[in-house]
Structures are given as C-alpha cells and as structure tokens.
Amino acid sequence: MFPMPVSMENIDSDHHLIPGDKIIIDIVEDREPRKLLFVDEKGTIKVPWIEKSIPVEDLTLRDVAEHLRAALQFDKDGNKLNFYQDGHPIVLATYFYNDRSRGRAVVEGEVQKPDNVSIPMDGILTLSDAIRDAGGFNSGADREHIGILHHDPMDPTKTTKETVNMTDLMAKVAGKAVLPGDIITVPSKTETGAYYHIGGKGALHGGKFPLQAGGPTTVAEAVQLAGFDNFSKLSAVRLLRDVKDPKTGQTKTETIIVDVEDVLNNGNKTKDVPLQNGDYIIVEQKWIAW
C-alpha cells in the first residue's frame, strides 16, 4: 500500500483510475478501519458509507476523495447529515499496491520465466506484453490454446475462463487487456496427462502440476504442497472447475468454496474435495485493517 497522505491536499492528482484498480479510503473522523475498494469493469466503486456505486473511471484519487467528501454530507435519502465538523469530513485516499503498479497477473507454463507480471499504473498490460514480460514463449509452447482465467474482484464467485489463439501476431487477441489477478497459462504442444493449477497471493509456490499417483489427490493436499503462511485465507479456498451441462452440452466454470482450514486443523475430511483434471485452486490472502 502507498503511504496514506496526511491531508486531502497531498492526495495523488496525477494518475487516472481505470477498471481493476484497488484503492484505500480513510474517513478520518469515523475512526474505523480503512476500506479497500475495487474499481470494477464498469469503472465504478461501491461505497459502503453511502450504500451506492459511483463512477470513478478517469478520475484521480483526489477527485474521488472530493466526490466522497461531498456525498458523505447526506444520507442515502438525501437528508443533510451533521456527523462531521463543519459538515465536511476529511477523506484520504491512496493506492493499494506499493510497487507503482495496479496489481499483478500470473503467467505460467511454457514461457521462459513463469512469474507474476506487474500491470503499469498509467496504461494497460496486453496479453502480448504479459508474455513478453515472462520472457517470451518456449519453443514447445502451444500458442493456439492459451488459457486466461479471470475472477471478478468484487465477487469471487464470478469467474470466467477462456482459450485464445496467438499464432497470428496481428490478431486482435494479442492486444487484449490483462487485469489484476488474471492467470495466463501457456500449454505445451506435447502436453499429455492430467494436471491442476494452484495460485493466488496466499499460495507460496503456485503453478501447474501433474495430477498423478503419489501426488496430491485433494484440494487440501494441493494447498499443503504449495505452502501457505499466516496470511493465507485457508477458510475459503476457491476451486474453479469446468462442468459440462448435460442438456445443452455447453461448458461453464463452477466455483466451489473449500474450508481447507477446517480440514487441516480439525481433520474434517468431509469438507475436502478430490481433484479433477484441469482444476484451478485459488488461495487468497486475508485482508487486515491498517
């Protein structure tokens, strides 16, 4: 997290917000924990103090603070509030990430340097940029079936998964914007056998692993193998699985919440879930109050 400004005059007024940004808002007089807010795909943030969503795309942090300052003078029915000195609260704001980026995406599989890649503060990270930042394709990369996993930061149960073809360098997909938290998987041309993925900020060693005899067979075992720490949110590990509708034949991504903490700490194996080919496991971090 960037340092919180000491006054509204010190809030950043240079960078313009875009979808995918994460910001911290502090209402000084409330003396409550600061709130982490996401700029969703519509360019809006949900403001808990006024129970409304407001558009913020292309605004600066100082613009947002001023808008909130004005909005917090009234309740949701438009009645004037008298909670704050002079009727005007002090609203402070900063960015969540401390590396001058809007967040990170994961590039894994057949690339030279599988790793997290940063999304620049001023601008977008395209799919081709992300592959480049991961060192480029390996010689055995299957460029026709690159997987992109995206989950909605406002609603972890909403997840989309798609496969794109990057064999044509001029293809429109090469300019596709990558969002914070996306997982980009480059498969091998000769890939055979079953596998699973594990990622998220709460997984210490994420990546793509074979699903084979002698290896993990459940979500909890996979999380143990990947490693975790005190900040890993084990009580709500997300398992993303492709499920085919028997009526329509269409495939959709299903989200299953697994309480790995209960499985590991209390031995409640009934809450564990057996792994299947192609499963994605996401281990998030716990949010803490600053």
Short account of what is shown:
The protein is mainly β and 290 residues long. Helix content is 11%, strand content 32%.
Task: Write a structural description.
The chain is mainly beta. It has three domains: 8-95, wza like fold (2-Layer Sandwich), CATH 3.30.1950; 99-191, Outer membrane lipoprotein wza domain like (Outer membrane lipoprotein wza fold like, Roll); 193-290, Roll (Outer membrane lipoprotein wza fold like). Helix content is 11%, strand content 32%. The strands form five sheets. Strands 7-6-12-9-10 form a five-stranded mixed beta sheet, covered by helices on one side. It has a five-stranded mixed beta sheet with strand order 14-13-17-15-16, with helices on one face. A three-stranded antiparallel beta sheet has the order 2-1-5, covered by helices on one side. Strand 1 and strand 2 (35-38) form a beta hairpin. The mean pLDDT is 82.
Q: Give the tally of β-strands.
A: 17
So, the CATH homologous superfamily of the largest domain? Outer membrane lipoprotein wza domain like
- What oligomeric assembly is this protein in? single chain
Shape call: globular
Distance between the termini: 10 Å
Q: Provide the CATH top-level class of the largest domain.
A: Alpha Beta
Question: Which percent range fits the helix content?
Answer: 10-25%
Kindly report the spatial arrangement of strands forming the biggest sheet. 7-6-12-9-10
Number of separate domains: 3
For the biggest sheet, the summary is: 5 strands, mixed
Work out the strand percent. Answer: 25-35%
* H/E element order: EEEEHEEEEHEEEEEEHEEHE
